[in-house]
Amino acid sequence: MQEKIEALRNLTIAPQALFIDGNWREPAEGAALDVISPINGQRLTSIADAGTVDVDRAVKAARAAFEKGRWSKAAPAERKRVLFKIAELIEKHALELAVLGVRDNGTEIAMALKAEPGSAAGSFRYYAEAIDKVYGEIAPTAGDILGLVHREPVGVVGAIVPWNFPLMIGAWKIAPALAAGNSVVLKPAEVASLSLLRLAELCAEAGLPEGVLNVVTGRGAVTGEAMGLHPEIDVLVFTGSGPVGRRLLEYSARSNLKRVYLELGGKSPNVVFADAPDLDKAAKTSAYGIFRNSGQVCVAGSRLLVERSIVEDFSAKVAGIAAAMKVGDPLLLSTEAGAISSEMQLRKDLGFAEQALVEGAKLRTGGKRVLTDTGGFYMEPTVFDVTPGMTLAREEVFGPILSIIPFDTEEEALAIANGTDYGLASAVWTSNLSRAHRMVRGIRAGVVHVNTYGGADNTVPLGGVRQSGNGHDKSLHALEKYLDLKTAWIQL
Prior knowledge:
Elements: H1 2-9, E1 18-20, E2 23-25, E3 32-36, E4 43-48, H2 52-68, H3 76-92, H4 94-105, H5 109-130, E5 137-138, E6 145-153, E7 156-160, H6 166-179, E8 183-187, H7 194-205, E9 213-215, H8 220-229, E10 235-239, H9 242-254, E11 259-263, E12 269-272, H10 279-291, E13 303-307, H11 311-324, H12 343-358, E14 362-365, E15 369-370, E16 378-379, E17 382-385, H13 391-394, E18 401-407, H14 410-417, E19 427-429, H15 433-442, E20 449-450, E21 483-491
Helix pairs in contact: 1-4, 2-8, 3-5, 3-7, 4-5, 4-7, 5-6, 8-9, 10-11
């Protein structure tokens, strides 16, 4: 496998255009953005920097395709056939897609293979299989009335996805939107667009009609704003930061009141009680739950809450695992933590570490930039002892920094777990079944893991509460964002 990866490592990547109406098109103003690889800090290629005119072209193509009905009015079985073909092509090109994504955003290849093409293919296959099993309803009306509830595609879906797992998160949004019969305009993050541009090609090869999927690359402040304000986008789905999510809500209010669904990250608590069934497993899983992909995971367990009677031994164990993790070239299968996505993100992460020291946090391990000789963007897995009021315990870092907080009672653990503005993911480690259920009910989060962290598949939803957003990706519930309900009230 490593030999195959090496064969793809340095392949030349041509400058990328926009994918609109089934064809590659240059941006109206000819602007481009350099793509810098976090592996070595070197320029990989360029992507088009789409402006308002380009977004309008993409949305009009999506609307025209929707109105023509080749996809929106196709039988679910036909849409199913094409989506299955997309999944097959993703799997066929899995290594190419994974390496392309790693060169773009720095995720370690061992994780990327499963989390990117592996997950994306699974999402397309899941919604392909599901869509011809979504039924309408017959209302319980009086005998002389027939009440029907139809489910119809919403129209044009705008999707804005982040840089950490672009293919996986892109598929979470594209697959159900397409399965429901919609057209899509997709904007990848400007620092991680390459794998999604390649996906557009594969979708066309699978037989997706022209205009049904369009990909516009560019800066969030320009391309993303144009999508947020466009009056012909019916639903906008977004994964990313809170400030951007707020702007998208404002754009909706200023334009056509499009529905906006937001997944805005978190500060997820990972709560370890002294009666955890396997403390060694809990320590290893907790370390990998924050340091894989260098902490650049929306559900990362970035706050480790440990019962005080075991906090010193358990924290030392986690810090030891962190210190031993192999940080390095993300295209090596032996690497356990890859690169930070960009120099800007690396500076932000280092700034959080510096601020923690100023506030009096205790550094157990890490805290520094490493591998500077490569030219790339790397940081040591970092562990701090903090108090609940410190910045590091409240704000999302999105980097390889873990905050450890002790607690004495179940009630205190719950109060600390709920003591941020976020509510995306969480975990509880305990052998006490009653306590596990109390914590599941008490933690305000969209996901609560018990005696594990991560790994939930497409059968269950992913979404947050409070400032972690609204709406859900994955599972049949994701289809709800992309379908409208229409009532037919018929006098017999």
